[in-house]
Write a structure and sequence with these properties.
single chain, mainly alpha
């Protein structure tokens, strides 16, 4: 690694047309928030992200989206599963 770098000719990413477009597209519809999660949950999200080749924040976003926009509420799905299992056990 060099001791000194010369950034006098450098440009910000927003000044480079194709990078500015990518930044605008990636930020489209997204809001930056700060939140605190339990460390064990973050580790689970990261592990799932690695297996799905996604970032943990994308995994969390997908999970929240599935929960909030599910065709059936989770309670209804759980009740249905319990009913099916009870029928099998009878």
């Amino acid at each position: 690694m060099r001791k000194e770098y010369d950034f006098s000719e450098g440009e910000r990413a927003s000044a480079i047309p194709h990078l500015a477009k990518l930044q605008a597209e990636s930020a489209k519809g997204k809001v930056r928030i700060t939140t605190y999660l339990d460390s064990d949950l973050v580790e689970l999200l990261k592990a799932r992200g690695e297996s799905e080749k996604k970032g943990y924040q994308t995994v969390l976003n997908d999970m929240l989206r599935k929960q909030f926009f599910a065709e059936k509420p989770i309670e209804e799905v759980i009740r249905q599963v319990i009913r099916e299992e009870l029928k099998k056990a009878a």
